[in-house]
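Give me C-alpha cells for this 151-residue protein.
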Amino acid sequence: MVMTPGVTKAGEGIDNISWNILGQIYVPKQVSETSMSWHATFPPGTFVPPHIHPTQDEFIYMLEGQFELMLDGRTVMANAGDLVRMPMGIPHAIFNKSDRTVKCFFWVSPTRRLFDLFWGIHNMAEQTPAEVVALSAKHEVDFLPPPDEGK
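Here you go.
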C-alpha cells in the first residue's frame, strides 16, 4: 500500500468505499502502510466496546457531537475540536450516549491489518458480537471481556 498524492474530496472515500461497522459509517480517506484515516459517523446509541490495538496508535479528532470514552480505565468526555489519543496497548472504548450524531475523523499508525478488518466486518451477513470479536483477533484488535458484574 503506497500512498498516492491527491485530494480525497469531502463526502467521498478512497475508491468510493463506505463501510457499515456495527451501525456506524466509516469512510476511508487515506490508506498506506504507515497510516490509515477515515471519517466516522456514530448515530445516537452506537459504540465500540472495550478493546486494545497492540500494534497501533489510534487518534480521533472530534468534528461534531460528544463521545464518552473509557481510556485506560478512566471515563473521559470528548467534544467538537478535541483530539483523543489512544496509544497502542492501552484499553479503550467509544460511546455515543447522546441524542445527537457524532462525526469525527479517526486515524491509526501504522495501518497493519485494520483496513482488511473493516472490509471483513462490513461484508459479514450479520455483525454478531462473537463473529466481530473472532475476526478482530485475527486482525490485531483484541476485544476485552465484559467487566464482572457485582464486583
